[in-house]
Design brief:
heterodimer, A: 777 residues, mainly alpha, Four Helix Bundle (Hemerythrin (Met), subunit A), two-stranded antiparallel ribbon, 22 helices, B: 203 residues, alpha+beta, Immunoglobulin-like, six-stranded mixed beta sheet, five-stranded mixed beta sheet, 3 helices
């Protein structure tokens, strides 16, 4: 184990608290990058017609500001605390998959750097707006490589998010301290649980969208250039993610506010249960209402009418949440400290952001408001105001826990007031000049000048306020008063250990009896803690970044990156085969209702859900294209060889059967038959891929190529994606076969094969659908 | 900004303002009451000393509280306010979206391109940059795009629609005040987005 602050420790750590701190610094760095971009274009807008930024530089700045702030700054800032605090709050030693957690972080860091690199390549960063509307973002209108590079960076970030999602869901579901039921979890842990659940369903579709866009840009297909797909297809795929993303960003802040309010009002949260139910309902509705982003696009009027009403109704649960927060303060004993001030600030700004959002749900108002500064002001109140202020509350609230020192309260309060005033001076004027168009670098209406200048002044005040915070936190780190374990007299578990907590979090075993949390001394001996260090997650992320960068900019670099990637992957597998990172399944935890679920198997189930969302989005794209192209779409059996496809289907189904057999043989302890059945699966998988290759070659010969028609494009993309998943499955199977050869599996240890089986069956089911839509219809 | 509020150049701007003002008024009222209540609570119940009879104690999971009746009131209040707004909004939406019946509708086809607006008059004449329309008549714009997504916005008339390649969106206005009005693109469409401006002259 590596002690102290050596660089090597930070590069190789898998401890959730270390990773939390890495997230914290990285997200604050990206916050600074995004903020600097904003300060630059606010300067441009202070005068109506100057050229501090050219049109191109301006568009790059606003695009990257949006992407960086939403994806690489605010959400990861929440995950800094999720990493640090959630395991503590549930009384766990670490997350369920510590190494994957490190992977999440490194993928996040290097995806961000990859996106930022686009500033330095020919043609510059993407300049198409963070919403990447097509056809502007297709190769025809924006050929510069930066647009593709940022899309790949986003795909890499989604990989990070998916891994993180799996990790947090499994951790919260199965690693709670004994007796810590769902209803007893602190609000912040609930907030993070909601966050990852929404992420799980929202990120698959957006990755599918960016994937299709990249195929368009790189291989010349026309998903987003043809009127049949085009902007409507993009709008569906983007906003299905885009709207829930607002709640992804918001949920951690709601959680922080919940914890902070309880601590500083000395009262249990009013209507805690109902707050949670309300947020659940709102999250669910958020997946339906995304259509409201398309009110002005001329989609079906009845659909829009329904969406308009659902969108208005999403405000009802938020009304309940906000009123409950306010009522918590009734007859309370309120201690106004910096975290409390930021929490209140967050509530006030959320109320303004929420109410001004209701305007957008009215189609009649939205027809005009869409694309104006009203929108800019509204979503900054919701996303920066509500969320960032909530997360700033988190920084001050948990700072004593993370450092063992108290920050300077006076400076903290000054920071709040400067930030709050600066924020409102920045964004309130945008409501006043709401008729001004967004995303313009010059404007001609003189009436808009004064308010733009006020906003710019506000931006610099708001930006300056962060310097106060940095000064305070840096200075307090060395000279702050010792904080003690529980400076706020808070109730939850993270305050029942030292500040900062030891690597293993708790010297004793936390146990919950009824409402009472106690530390089970276990005969005075702390439970042993297993901790590993590994360089692999970082190396894997670097090589992936290198490969992506090379793919777009310089092919030899791509080869270098891919070779590195394969080497790291191989090393990772070898480490695993020799069990160098095994972490014992935690014994005494609350797992209800997942008692019988092994950690790995559970993780794979979550992975399957996110993969299902990815494929669902592709099936959706297929349906939209086919419906719009009715008449021109070729009848399946006329193009595809049904007999060959049918044979392949049978082969794949048989391979599922052999997996089932292999699990049975593993349970029986029959290694020889286990190996036979696994080998058979492998072989059948290979045959399937080979036949697929034959089919592709034959089709290409007949002129049915990737770019020959939309029907062909979507066929190759979907079956290709499926084949890529099969290859992934076969790599996993290789690993399992090697382990089986070493005689690892027996009647107690077969969950690895089961987990693989779940994934393999999933791929088979996807194929059955693919067979139906392409070969039979 | 006040000038625009006072000078309504015709429909649907007048109706739009009536809806906008309703939302604004209710928004101020609701936001003011909630924030005011919160500030009042904070002032009134401020107390820095925590002691033994706190309901929050270290190591004790707080009891659930929250009266379902009060929650229902919260729910009901929010729902009533929102559905009042929603129903008025639907009325206005139907009005804005449905072209009024009239004998002589003046129909102009609008084609957005990088970076400008082309107008095709009923008689087939094509012009770029300025469209001239008659006062008091119902003017219908059929909007599409030649290349990328744009948004056709008639700022003073408080209406607009996306210009989408391969599709047509329809909006209508009825100008009552002669004058020159601004048409601008409201969806980022590339380098010339900021200057994708045209004028509409009402005579």
């Amino acid at each position: 184990m590596k002690e102290g602050n050596s660089l090597l420790r930070w590069l190789t750590t898998t401890n959730h608290k270390d990773i939390g701190i890495l997230y914290l610094f990285t997200s604050l760095y990206f916050l600074m990058v995004g903020g600097s971009l904003a300060l630059t274009f606010r300067l441009q807008l202070a005068m109506p017609n100057v050229e501090i930024l050219s049109a191109s530089a301006f568009n790059q700045a606003i695009t990257m500001h949006g992407l960086i702030m939403i994806l690489w700054a605010i959400s990861p800032l929440a995950f800094a605390f999720a990493n640090y605090v959630v395991p503590l709050q549930i009384g766990a030693r670490d997350l369920a998959f510590p190494r994957l957690n490190a992977l999440s972080y490194w993928l996040y860091l290097f995806s961000g750097l990859l996106a930022a690199l686009s500033f330095f390549i020919p043609g510059g960063a993407p300049d198409v707006g963070w919403t990447y509307y097509v056809p502007l973002s297709t190769g025809r209108f924006s050929p510069q490589p930066g647009v593709t590079l940022a899309a790949l960076a986003l795909a890499m970030l989604v990989a990070s998010v998916t891994v993180g999602t799996i990790n947090f869901i499994v951790t919260i579901a199965t690693m709670r301290a004994p007796g810590l039921g769902w209803s007893k979890l602190p609000m912040f842990t609930w907030g993070i649980l909601y966050t990852v659940l929404i992420m799980l369903f929202a990120f698959g579709p957006v990755v599918a969208g960016f994937f299709l866009l990249t195929v368009d840009r790189v291989f010349g297909t026309t998903f987003f250039l043809s009127p049949e797909g085009g902007s409507i297809l993009w709008a569906h795929m983007f906003w299905f993610f885009g709207h829930p993303e607002v709640y992804v960003v918001l949920a951690p802040a709601i959680g922080v506010i919940g914890d902070v309010l309880e601590t500083f009002t000395r009262k249990p949260l009013f209507g805690r249960k109902y707050i949670l139910i309300a947020f659940g309902i709102a999250s669910f509705i958020s997946f339906i209402v995304y259509v409201h982003h398309m009110f002005a696009t001329g989609i079906n009027p009845i659909v829009r009418e329904v969406m308009s009403i659902t969108t208005e109704s999403i405000s009802v649960p938020f009304g309940v949440i906000m009123l409950s927060f306010v009522f918590t303060m009734y007859k309370a004993k309120i201690n106004v400290k910096t975290p409390f001030l930021f929490a209140i600030g967050s509530i006030v700004l959320f109320i303004i952001g929420g109410i001004t959002g209701v305007f957008n749900s009215s189609i009649a108002l939205d027809r005009f408001i869409r694309g104006t500064y009203w929108i800019v002001a509204h979503f900054h109140y919701a996303m920066v105001g509500a969320t960032l202020f909530g997360l700033l509350a988190a920084i001050y609230y948990w700072y004593p826990k993370m450092t063992g020192r108290m920050y300077n309260e006076r400076l903290g309060k000054i920071h709040f007031w400067v930030a709050f005033i600066g924020f409102n001076v920045l964004y309130l004027p945008m409501f006043i000049i709401y008729e001004m168009p967004r995303r313009v670098n010059v404007y001609f209406n003189e009436a808009w000048i004064p308010m733009n200048q006020v906003a710019t002044v506000g931006a610099y005040i708001f930006g300056f306020s962060f310097l106060i915070m940095v000064y305070n936190l840096v200075k307090s780190y060395s000279s702050g008063l010792p904080a003690g374990n529980n400076p706020w007299n808070a109730w939850s578990l993270e305050w029942m250990t030292t500040s900062p907590p030891p690597a293993h979090n708790f010297d004793f075993e936390p146990v919950i009896n009824g409402n009472q949390i106690s530390m089970y001394t276990n005969g005075g001996v702390p439970e042993p803690h297993v901790e590993h260090h590994t360089m692999m997650p970082m190396l894997l992320s670097i090589s992936l970044m290198t490969a992506f960068f090379g793919l777009i900019i310089y092919p030899p670099v791509f080869i270098l990156g891919s070779a590195l990637l394969l080497a790291v992957l191989a090393k990772w597998i070898v480490d695993d085969i020799y069990d160098r990172f095994s972490i014992p399944e935690p014994k005494h935890t609350s797992k209800w209702p997942f008692e019988s679920m092994n950690r790995l198997k559970f993780g794979v189930w979550i992975l399957v859900i996110s993969e299902a969302m990815l494929f669902a989005a592709l099936f959706g794209a297929y349906s939209l294209l086919r419906i719009n192209l009715v008449g021109e779409w070729p009848f399946g059996p006329e193009v595809h060889d049904v007999r060959l496809g049918g044979l392949n289907t049978i082969i794949l189904l048989t391979s599922s059967l052999t997996v089932v057999l292999s699990i049975a043989y593993a349970k029986m302890g029959d290694t020889r038959k286990l190996l036979y059945s696994l080998g058979a699966t492998y072989l059948l998988g290979l045959i399937f891929l080979a036949l697929k290759g034959v089919e592709w070659a034959k089709l290409a010969e007949e002129g049915f190529t990737l770019t020959s028609s939309l029907a062909a494009s979507i066929y190759y993309v979907m079956t290709g994606t499926h084949a890529a998943h099969m290859i992934g499955g076969l790599i996993a199977l290789t690993y399992i076969i090697i382990k089986a050869l070493r005689g690892v599996y027996n009647d107690r240890n077969y969950q690895g094969i089961e987990a693989f089986g779940i994934y393999w069956h999933f791929i088979d089911i996807i194929w059955i659908f693919l067979f139906a839509i392409f070969y039979l219809m | 900004m006040m000038e625009y509020v006072l000078q309504i150049p015709g429909e649907p701007a007048g109706t739009w303002y009536s809806l906008f003002n309703l939302y604004l008024g209710l928004g101020f009222l609701v936001g003011g009451v909630v924030v005011g209540m919160m500030i009042y609570f904070i002032m009134k119940y401020r107390e820095a000393n925590s002691n033994e009879d706190d309901e929050i104690k270290p190591g004790v999971i707080p009891k659930d509280r929250g009266n379902i009746k009060i929650i229902t009131v919260f729910f009901g209040l929010t729902a009533i306010i929102l559905f009042t707004l929603a129903s008025y909004s639907i009325l206005v939406t139907n009005y804005v979206e449905k072209v009024p019946k009239a004998d002589d509708i003046f129909e102009v086809t609008v084609i957005g391109f990088q970076w400008g607006w082309k107008f095709i008059y009923p008689n087939g004449t094509e012009v770029v940059g300025e469209v001239v329309v008659p006062k008091d008549k119902i003017i219908v714009f059929r909007i599409t795009s030649d290349d990328v997504f744009h948004k056709f916005q008639l700022i003073e008339f408080r209406t607009g629609a996306d210009a989408i390649p391969g599709a047509f969106n329809v909006i209508w206005i009825q100008p009552t005040e002669p004058g020159t009005y601004t048409i601008q693109c409201y969806e980022l469409c590339g380098l010339g987005h900021s200057v994708m401006v045209a004028t509409m002259r009402v005579v």
